[in-house]
């Protein structure tokens, strides 16, 4: 097991290891009933990674998307994967996700929709008795995070958020957290987080809604507005599909798109030293692609999330977490730098560097250091994040990226966006989950959903 190879009749079998259990990725001798049945809600570009990873461990029996072209692609790929594994299993296509939740045979759902749909579908999926794998960021508001945590506790469903940095990327982030846990940089004093800025679009004209797209349902809880599209670049400029990330109506810009990864790692590091949530968030600087008034963009025909920004988040013990679009003066444009009383290091998806990292050559981490921060489990050799989810479904335990830790990280991101949009410091009470002394800012913890698309717990 430790050598990373298992032989069966002289043939190596792919596996993942969690704790003391070994589970084959593709056990072709199993009957179809031995593999969980999956319903995929949302089959756009990001699903091209999530869907195939899930299909290594279960069988997709239904796909859902409000874009018929996406749904057809999802069915074609799912049926091909089923056939490849010797299972001639038909995959149903639906436009309404509730038809997937109504099916008793489906045990697991993947949610790979635009951000503003995550919470509603996830809550209803848990109430329908499904275990959930949902892409990040999980929420559009802090109130949605509170509701998801409430329902997760009530239903006992297993829920993995798609923050793959907690499991994969060569275990660079896991090693970083393990170093903090082992005291290699002493007490954390400051964290620099660089997550990139949002793009600009210029004016985007009103356009005809594509025939295959149910635009009204795509909008969901967001206001009913015209469809807009302008050709250009890889995806074109639009209010839809990949480009939803740059509209506050559907997402939170880079603050939630990449903050869901890097702010999550920053707070995971703070967790190792028992540091709670933020106390205050100060907007040092922001550049928006459109003028703002009372926290709202004054133009509706272009991207509206900030292209550049800097928020200073203060945590207990006078720890500053600086969240910016870039930290080039520190030698990196994307990543996280942890500064402690004994040294500092930087980590991103390509490297883990700094004097404490060099010292590992002569003073390596204990053999169980990764397991300690990975909830007593060992990440898989490949497909680790999804494998961790499926194993936790079997064990009925919280996976490595549970809703509770993700809600804490997203609370910081959402508060940062509130501070940027209102252009003032917000003070946070982590226990009551309320902004202190600012009733106007507190109204931004939730938002009114369009009738028929409310998010209820």
UniProtKB/TrEMBL annotation:
Gfo/Idh/MocA-like oxidoreductase N-terminal domain boundaries: 59-162
GO MF term list: nucleotide binding
SUPFAM superfamilies named among the record's database cross-references: Glyceraldehyde-3-phosphate dehydrogenase-like, C-terminal domain, NAD(P)-binding Rossmann-fold domains
Top-level taxonomic group: Bacteria
InterPro entries for the chain: Gfo/Idh/MocA-like_OxRdtase_N, Gfo/Idh/MocA_oxidrdct_glycsds, Gfo/Idh/MocA_OxRdtase_bact_C, NAD(P)-bd_dom_sf
Domain Gfo/Idh/MocA-like oxidoreductase bacterial type C-terminal positions: 205-273, 382-454
PANTHER family, sorted: BCDNA.GH03377, OXIDOREDUCTASE FAMILY PROTEIN
Protein name: Oxidoreductase
Source organism (scientific name): Blastopirellula marina
């Amino acid at each position: 097991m430790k050598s990373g190879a298992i032989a069966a009749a002289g043939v190596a079998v792919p596996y993942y290891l969690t704790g003391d259990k070994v589970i084959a990725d593709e056990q072709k001798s199993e009957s179809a009933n031995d593999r969980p049945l999956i319903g995929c809600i949302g089959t756009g570009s990001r699903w091209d990674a999530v869907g195939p990873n899930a299909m290594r461990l279960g069988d997709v029996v239904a796909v859902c998307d409000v874009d018929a072209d996406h749904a057809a692609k999802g069915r074609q790929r799912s049926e091909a994967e089923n056939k490849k594994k010797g299972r001639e299993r038909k995959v149903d296509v639906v436009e309404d996700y509730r038809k997937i939740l109504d099916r008793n045979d489906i045990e697991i759902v993947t949610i790979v929709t635009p951000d503003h749909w995550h919470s509603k579908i996830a809550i209803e999926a848990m109430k329908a008795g499904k275990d959930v794998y949902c892409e990040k960021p999980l929420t559009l508001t802090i109130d949605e995070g509170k509701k998801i945590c409430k329902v997760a506790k009530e239903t006992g469903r297993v829920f993995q958020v798609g923050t793959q940095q907690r499991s994969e990327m060569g275990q660079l982030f896991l090693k970083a957290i393990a170093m903090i846990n082992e005291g290699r940089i002493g007490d954390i004093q400051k964290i620099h987080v660089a997550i990139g800025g949002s793009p600009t679009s210029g004016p985007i004209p009103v356009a005809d809604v594509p025939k295959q797209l149910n635009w009204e349902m795509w909008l969901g809880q967001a206001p009913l507005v015209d469809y807009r599209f302008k050709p250009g670049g890889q995806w074109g400029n639009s209010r839809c599909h990949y480009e939803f990330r740059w509209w506050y109506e559907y997402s939170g810009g880079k603050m939630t798109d990449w903050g869901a990864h890097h702010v999550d790692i920053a707070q995971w590091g703070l967790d190792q030293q028992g540091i709670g949530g933020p106390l205050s968030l100060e907007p040092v600087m922001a550049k928006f692609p459109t003028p703002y008034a009372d926290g709202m963009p004054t133009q509706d025909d272009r991207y509206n999330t900030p292209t550049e920004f800097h928020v200073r988040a203060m945590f207990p013990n006078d720890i500053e977490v600086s969240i910016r679009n870039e930290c080039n003066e520190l030698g990196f444009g994307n990543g996280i730098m942890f500064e402690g009383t004994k040294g500092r290091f930087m980590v991103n998806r390509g490297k883990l560097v700094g004097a404490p990292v060099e010292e590992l050559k002569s003073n390596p981490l204990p053999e169980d250091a990764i397991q300690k921060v990975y909830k007593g489990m060992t990440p898989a050799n490949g497909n680790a994040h999804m494998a961790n989810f499926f194993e936790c479904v079997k064990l009925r335990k919280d996976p490595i990226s549970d809703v509770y830790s993700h809600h804490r990280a997203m609370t910081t991101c959402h508060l940062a966006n509130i501070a940027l949009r209102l252009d003032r410091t917000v003070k946070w009470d982590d226990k009551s989950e309320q902004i202190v002394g600012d009733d106007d800012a507190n109204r931004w913890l939730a938002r009114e959903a369009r009738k028929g698309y409310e998010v209820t717990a």
